[in-house]
Amino acid sequence: MEFASSSSSSSSSSFLKSEPHFIYDVFINFGGEDIGRKLVSHLHSVLLQAQVKTLVNEENLQEGMKLEEHMGAIAVSKIAIIVFSKTYTESTCCLLELEKIIECLETFGQVVLPVFYEIEPLDVRDQKDDFGKALEETAKKSYLGEQLEHALSRWRRALTTAASMTSWDVRDFRDDAELVEVIVRHVQTLLDYKDLFITEFPVGLESRVEKVIGCIKNHDTKVCIIGIWGMVGTGKTTIAKAIYNRIYRLFIGKSFIETIREFWCLLYRTYVDLQEHLLDDVLKYKFELENDEMGRTLIKTKFSRKKLLIVLDDVSEFGQLENLCGNREWFGRGTVIIITTRDAKMLNRLKVNYVYKMDDMNKNDSLELLSWHAFGEAKPRKELNEIARNIVANCGGLPLALKVLGGWTMQIPYVQVQEWKYVSLRLPNAFARVREKLKISFDGLGDMEKDIFLDVCCFFIGKERGYATEILNGCGLHADIGITVLIERDFIKVERNNKLEMHPLLRDMGREITRRDWPQEPGKRSRLWFHEDVKDILKTKSGTKATQGLSLKLHSTSRDCFEAQAFKNMKSLRLLQLDHVQLTGDYGYLSKQLRWICWKGFPSKYIPNNFCMESVVAMDLKHSHLQLLWKQPLSNQPQVLERLKFLNLSHSKYLRETPDFSILPSLEQLILKDCRSLCNVHPSIGDLCNLFLINLKDCTSLSCLPREVYKLKSLRTFILSGCFKIFILEEDIVQLESLITLVTENTVAESTAVKQLPCSIVSSKSIGYISLRGFEASSHNIFPSIIRSWMSPIVNPQSYISPYCMDMKNNNERDLAPLLSVLANIRTVLVQCDAEVQLSKQVKKILVECSVNFTESRISKRHLRFSLNCVGSYNDFFNTLNNSVSEGLASSECNDVSLPGDNYPWLVHMGEGHSVSFTVPQNSDMKRMILCVVYLSTPGIMATECLRSVLIVNYTKCKLQIHNHGSVISINDDDWHGIMANLGSGEKVEIFLTFDHGLVRLYDMW
């Protein structure tokens, strides 16, 4: 057998001369007799279906692969899976392969994953009893004298080494299928084959990538370090991502740490944070380091034998390099490290192998890039060509400037050519710095959008959009409209979880605008965010009325302490962020205009009564030392916070009880996650008319909720995960008429938050998501009960046209069979099972309880009727299908038939009975699926009148789709997309039909 490169090992994979040159992802080593063969076969199949390139030892030897070639295959595999069984040591081949695997582990860090199949790890490690005797007998058959002793010594050492590693024992799992799922999932995590998103318009990118790859080709030293250097916005990150995507499959481990400069003060506060990130990326295991010295030692220990690809993007100081890749001896042969930075001095100091300087884009590429972003096409319209070229000339070939200006100018209609000319004239002939190019876009904003942009870039990057919008609305900025405008003009992006993000250049530009107004007098600036400036202002008490926002984020170990009097003159302060800041003195000096208070690690047991918060919209005091929010005021008139909508006290481990909510009449979100001392929720919570979210996750001391909480008519999201002591009754929870999301995850049967999920909860017209992962309450008919509740013609009419999703993992008691008896009005049910065995069990129950028992009968052609949904050339299709069915009825065999169609290749699979099974063709794009039924019935009865449901079973993904369409025989587009989303290339599928009484026998095909 000849070795063939994987699909990913194309021309881009041949540049690395360093060994090893990986061809395979996984090598499976097993042997002996038939013990474990079924497991290995299943594992091999699932790995291949998961697109993991895999070799199995015995299989390939039987095909004629020489043992030497097999050893070579081990050396070019990233992962070795060893399946130990009682007869393992009876195979010389297995032991030789094991010896090679341990050698690869010790030379280049090959990942080794042992699996014990019906044998104790100690038996393998110590080679005692029958296992050890078989080892000696195998050695005697192959070696004599001194060679025998050497072989035994080597094999014993290899067995001991492998048996001492982290492993899986099949006895720890319900069945082989569960073990295979765990192994495959772990392998996929280790391989992590996911391309990074590069850019929407990769203009001029390919030639640059080839140049850098050429640099790597010419440096085949033990460790190759490449620097990519250039000014901001030149595309360093983009080219690094493109190179990463081209070559990452050739390495045993990889890491891409993006935008280090941006996150240095936010996420990576110390070198230790960066080191932990790198170790986690490569090893897929979280480490907790005590200091950076320990991190450097661990990097050297774990990486010294591994061939890695590491990309450090936008490095801002040499210490980051020193602590991540300060010594080439830390890494194995063939490692490639790519560093992008604005500072060439760091690269020279590190003595990289090659520095690639990012040149400006040429005029043609610049024009094309601007055109894509401005006009959505490669070239501008003829009448705008000159104007576009003038803008390009002023951008200096900087990709980011072209992108931002293109997105901005796209808002101007083509017909307003004069306005385009005006914009072009406003662009200076030469900009010295990127932010000057970008500021022209900023100047085009209205005053309201400018204020919102400056607030976001200084305080709200990474914050949820709705949260920031409400706060800025509270400042009178109409952020609903303003943020939309900024998103449309590409100043702000909304990323995952609806969070606001911004390119670092735009952020820097906005912050520079606030700094440049008063470069020498920080106290007179509108927004204070620079760490040292803020500390100096607070120490010198030099703040002024001009200050609208202030942010000071200290580390939790900080000992800095300031006086509250420092805020005395900041009368206009509306945005305040203080992380782990100690403040002493009279809190009455703080501004009465505050709309946002974000004070992580608030140091006091209570909020002082003289801290005026009457205008505050959002109060975020996570990780605080609060025991109570406020002490009872001396007067009988407590401070009423009319505007407060968000209250987040998460992780406040000393908090004992909530405040009296009568002083928070506008509250919309109450987040008390992980408040482990919280024992009491004030009954006044029931008076909150606008409260739509309550998060009590992991409030482990909370034993009950006031009955008033169930009077909340506006509550949409209720999270109780980890609240082990709470008992909720059916009559309580059904009162939450607006409830959309209920989460009670990871609870136990005897102490679950919701003792029994009431069927009547779904009587709500708005219920959309119920998460019960880990729910083990006594009622095992929860989901069928919910379905029955939905069946009522007066209940939840929208559910009739919506698919219903069910997760059967971690719950073996649920029975799906009753579903079909109440499925008259639900169109689609999608079920996710934990294993193929469980899936098959459910399918069997449904068929036994809900299908007819078909009686055998001889079929004549006069009884044949066809139900067809034809696609393509009708006559050719129908005639070929007719002949195929006739031939299939005359034969007991199933045949594949090619059907004509309009540019679509057709494959036909035939099945006898009420199902047809097939494997989705590899690398195929299935356009249509047609189910043809051949049946015998009593006169006047059509199959379409008797069809109850279609079951599509995906054994590979352990998913079951139940489709009920009544007399409709064609599946609509929405459901078709749902079907295809669950049918992947190479997956094993079976389709079942269930009919009412009247049909005596049927055949079907697709």
TrEMBL record:
**Listed GO biological process terms:** defense response; signal transduction
Residue limits of the TIR domain?
22-191
Q: Which InterPro entries match?
A: Apaf_helical, Disease_R_plants, LRR_dom_sf, NB-ARC, P-loop_NTPase, TIR_dom, Toll_tir_struct_dom_sf, WHD_ROQ1-like
Q: Which Pfam families match?
A: NB-ARC, TIR, WHD_ROQ1
Domain of life per record: Eukaryota
Enumerate the UniProt keywords alphabetically.
Answer: Leucine-rich repeat, NAD, Repeat
Named from the GO MF annotations, one term is:
ADP binding
Residue ranges annotated as coiled coil are none
* PANTHER family assigned: LEUCINE-RICH REPEAT-CONTAINING PROTEIN, RESISTANCE PROTEIN (TIR-NBS-LRR CLASS), PUTATIVE-RELATED
Q: What is the protein name for this chain?
A: TIR domain-containing protein
Q: Which gene encodes it?
A: Vigan.09G034900
